[in-house]
């Protein structure tokens, strides 16, 4: 096996084969950067200039888009870093900020998805009470609290993450140095329990109760039927983000840390190391999936996206063209009928 570029494993008895990540990570981060940048700029533009007034869901989605954008703009640094086989020329401060933005985006995304899910749950299961609870002012307060909690919980990243010289390369650790690795594992487990397991459990409970309410037979109007369909779409999309992006990353990261502490067989360690590195880009991909959630969640967002598209403009031009041509085609016919009528009148005379 080839030794890992991180430099950490040189002190372990196992050397990990990590050459694959010098292709996988730059390519995947580059794709997430390109797609995520376009989608989140479009989302922020719509939130800021096309949607007025905001409701509670819009407030949570806007904060989610801000979180995604902050992370996306840091990805070119990681693309360069891994394409140069882990050589970080940007200094220790930017290394810490980049790793901080990754974890902050991950857990802000989880918590704002939780807020959106609770908002939808209250609207479906407690429609009358939700009119009092689901106010924009409350959503703004909750958003500020989310930012404070997540930023505070991720602030130890500035302590654990650092740079280190390894030959000619400067390494930007994505975990910690070896001397504080045990403490970092404990810190990661606390994050796992409080910032992932608890929100994920609440989301599952909310969605189970929502599905039970939606499936109840009722004399539904067209409006309530559309609301139920939208709720189902949100359920599917949020669960998809968790299952594809967050769940594999947290499971494999936990196993990776735990197996390293247990000092298992090198083949097992190399396999779980491979799985962990592969799931890191999946966690980043939530920055691309979140704008799809905005589109599915709100009719206002869909209407603004469609109204700005070329399809809508072409449709308007086509409609105008048809109307104009129908008018022109009627005019000659009417004039011909008038002419024939006049001729008949003159013949009778």
TrEMBL record:
InterPro entries: GPCR_Rhodpsn, GPCR_Rhodpsn_7TM, P2Y2_rcpt. Residues 329-349 are annotated as: Disordered. It is a multi-pass membrane protein. Keywords: Cell membrane, Disulfide bond, G-protein coupled receptor, Membrane, Receptor, Transducer, Transmembrane, Transmembrane helix. GO terms for cellular component: plasma membrane. The chain crosses the membrane at residues 27-48, 60-82, 102-122, 142-161, 184-210, 231-251. It comes from Hymenochirus boettgeri. GO terms for biological process: blood vessel diameter maintenance; phospholipase C-activating G protein-coupled receptor signaling pathway; positive regulation of mucus secretion. Signal peptide: none annotated. Pfam families: 7tm_1 (PF00001). This is P2Y purinoceptor 2. Its main location: membrane. Residues 39-294 form the G-protein coupled receptors family 1 profile domain. Belongs to the G-protein coupled receptor 1 family. It is found in: Cell membrane. One of its GO terms (molecular function) is G protein-coupled UTP receptor activity.
């Amino acid at each position: 096996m080839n030794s890992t570029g991180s430099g950490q494993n040189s002190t372990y008895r196992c050397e990990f084969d990590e050459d694959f990540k010098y292709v996988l990570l730059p390519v995947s981060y580059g794709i997430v950067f390109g797609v995520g940048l376009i989608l989140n700029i479009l989302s922020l533009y719509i939130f800021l200039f096309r949607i007025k007034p905001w409701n509670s869901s819009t407030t949570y989605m806007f904060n989610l888009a801000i979180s995604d954008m902050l992370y996306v703009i840091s990805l070119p640094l990681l693309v360069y870093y891994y394409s140069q086989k882990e050589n970080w020329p940007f200094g220790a401060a930017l290394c810490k900020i980049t790793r901080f933005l990754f974890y902050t985006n991950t857990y802000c995304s989880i918590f704002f998805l939780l807020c959106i899910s609770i908002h939808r749950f209250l609207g479906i299961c407690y429609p009358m009470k939700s009119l009092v609870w689901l106010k924009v002012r409350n959503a703004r307060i909750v958003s500020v609290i989310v930012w404070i909690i997540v930023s505070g919980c991720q602030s130890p990243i500035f302590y654990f993450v650092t740079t280190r010289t390894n030959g000619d390369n400067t390494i930007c650790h994505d975990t910690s140095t070896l001397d504080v690795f045990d403490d970092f594992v404990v810190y990661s487990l606390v994050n796992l329990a409080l910032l992932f397991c608890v929100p994920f459990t609440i989301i599952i409970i909310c969605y189970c109760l929502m599905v039970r309410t939606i499936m109840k037979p009722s004399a539904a109007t067209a409006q309530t039927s559309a609301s139920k369909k939208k709720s189902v779409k949100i359920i599917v999309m949020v669960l998809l983000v968790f299952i594809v992006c967050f769940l594999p990353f947290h499971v494999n990261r936990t196993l990776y840390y735990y197996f390293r502490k247990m000092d298992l067989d090198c083949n097992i360690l190399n396999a779980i190391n491979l799985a962990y590195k592969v799931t890191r880009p999946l966690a980043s991909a939530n920055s691309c999936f979140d704008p799809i959630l905005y589109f599915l969640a709100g009719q206002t967002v869909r209407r603004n996206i469609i109204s700005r598209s070329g399809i809508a403009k072409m449709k308007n031009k086509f409609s105008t063209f048809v109307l104009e041509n129908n008018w022109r085609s009627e005019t000659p016919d009417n004039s011909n009928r008038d002419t024939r009528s006049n001729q008949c009148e003159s013949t009778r005379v």
